[in-house]
Write a structure and sequence with these properties.
Blueprint (H helix, E strand, L loop, with lengths): L2 E6 L5 H9 L17 E7 L2 E7 L10 H16 L2 E7 L6 H12 L4 E6 L7 H6 L7 E4 L8 H13 L21 E7 L5 H9 L17 E7 L2 E7 L12 H16 L2 E7 L6 H12 L3 E7 L7 H15 L8 E3 L8 H15 L5 H14 L12 E8 L4 E6 L7 H14 L8 E6 L8
Parallel strand pairs: 1-3, 1-4, 4-5, 5-6, 7-9, 7-10, 10-11, 11-12, 14-15
Antiparallel strand pairs: 2-3, 8-9, 13-14
Length: 451
């Protein structure tokens, strides 16, 4: 499968085009320039063409600093990796000096380059049409990423370039795990800003895939990275930091938060990264409850553990905070690590695999009811208005997270404390400790009474 990179100045519509070809809203689109910072990959389709598309950060040679250097480096890697380059300019603005300079670099690469004159709809796009030819590219396409105008021309050009090359352009479904019967494990790295999520992901996969920096808020999009480890395939997702709700006021920040919440929803396991040198913050516990509420596997990653001097006392403090403030999950796994130096990464990966495996664990109805009988005999549910509240049977109705239905005579009158007692007993008896779990109370008859 071939790879196409989208390059160009900030705010010329690369992410809008990326979303249209990938057919999703994977890339955040905002009028503010410089929203995209990392390389974002997607499986794109155009008629019968199937290809990998890379969205890159905007080209701005005026920016300085370590973070801006890393951003440019990520764009350079995308260009080097690509088979075809789509150079996007804003047709309404015309060709700027930075684009003339960059076009000379692209020509020297000896790679196929398509000049896409985006925002060409209407008379305002005539500026780019008249100036685009001066850049020296053979293929120029007037386009509108927002309205989809010019897609047929883009298809014809891509098909022509591919037929003249040895690249595979047949439309196949890209299954990242096709050589492995084991399903892909989606792991979301979640946390407050500046807890070292991007640095940790870079260290896990062993390359500088994500832009990092000392200032908070470097990551904006949720970036998916495919990674293989010991015959298992992972989709690792780095996300923007989640701040307190009261501090989120800008539309871009709201989109970043929405992207992170979507990551939580569609992950198998979420690693909540905290600053291990300070322990759990109130915001960390709020995020942990969100993850548990979505039924995702939760791992607390105490990062920057190399900075901690009194490790024993801080460990005890973190365990106590979780026991008091996140009591709905017993024994949440905690991995103490250093994303910068790579300490604890192997333990983290093993814990992710263990949690993902146990989330899919299914218990037979027979086993569950053999467990239930002595439980309710030794600890029967409290009477309600002098009447017995009979628990008839239990069955597992779902996995990921493990979900159970308990059928009884009067579910609305069962105290919450007794429900928690049953959940705790279930966790301890069937190796469900550290997992989110749901128990539903239902009114119904025992189907085994007449058997």
């Amino acid at each position: 499968m071939y790879t196409i990179a989208l390059v160009g100045r900030p705010n010329v519509g690369k992410s809008t085009l990326f979303n249209r070809l990938v057919r999703s809203n994977k890339a955040i689109v905002n009028n503010m320039p410089g929203v995209t910072r990392d390389r974002k990959y997607g499986n794109a389709t155009l008629v019968d063409l199937n290809f990998i598309l890379i969205d890159t950060a905007g080209l701005d040679e005026s920016l300085t600093g370590k973070t801006d250097t890393e951003i440019r480096y990520q764009t350079e890697l995308a260009i080097e990796e690509s088979d075809i380059i789509i150079f996007v300019i804003d047709s309404r603005v015309g060709v700027l000096p930075v684009e003339k300079f960059f076009s000379k670099k692209l020509i020297k690469l000896n790679k196929p380059v398509i000049l896409l004159l985006n925002k060409s709809e209407g008379n305002s796009g005539l500026i780019g049409l008249s100036e685009g030819a001066s850049l020296g590219f053979n293929t120029i396409i007037p386009f509108s990423a927002e309205h989809g105008e010019g897609l047929s021309d883009l298809y014809d050009v891509l098909r022509d370039k591919l037929e003249n090359s040895k690249l595979d352009y047949k439309n196949r479904t890209n299954i990242s795990n096709q050589d492995n019967d084991m399903p892909l494990i989606r792991v979301g790295f979640i946390g407050r800003p500046n807890t070292g999520k991007s640095t940790l992901v870079n260290n896990i996969i062993g390359e500088n895939r994500l832009v990092t920096g000392s200032e908070a808020g470097v990551t904006r999009d949720a970036i998916e990275v495919l990674w293989r480890h010991k015959d298992r395939s992972f989709c690792i997702i780095d996300t923007a930091g989640l701040r307190k709700k009261s501090k989120i006021v800008k539309p871009l920040e709201m989109e970043m938060v929405g992207d992170t919440l979507k990551t939580i929803k569609y992950s198998n396991v979420c690693v909540l990264l905290i600053d291990g040198s300070t322990g759990l913050d109130k915001q960390d516990l709020t995020i942990a409850r969100m993850i548990v509420g979505e039924g995702r596997g939760l791992i607390i990653g105490a990062n920057m553990w190399d900075k901690v001097e009194d490790k024993k006392d801080l460990k005890e403090k973190i365990y106590n905070q979780l026991q008091v403030s996140l009591s709905q999950i017993k024994k949440v796994p905690i991995v103490f690590m250093s994303g910068l130096y790579g300490n604890g990464i192997e333990n983290l990966v093993e814990t992710i695999c263990d949690i993902e495996k146990r989330l899919k664990f299914r218990i037979s109805t027979g086993k569950l009811n053999r467990w239930l009988i002595p439980i309710i005999e030794n600890n029967p549910p409290p009477l309600y208005k002098g009447k017995k509240n009979s628990i008839r049977y239990i069955t597992q109705v779902n996995v990921k997270p493990p979900t159970f239905a308990i059928f009884m005579s009067s579910p609305e009158n069962l105290p919450e404390s007794y429900k928690r007692f049953l959940m705790t007993s279930l966790m301890e008896s069937f190796d469900l400790l550290g997992l989110p779990m749901r128990v539903m109370l239902r009114k119904g008859k025992n189907p085994y009474v007449d058997v």
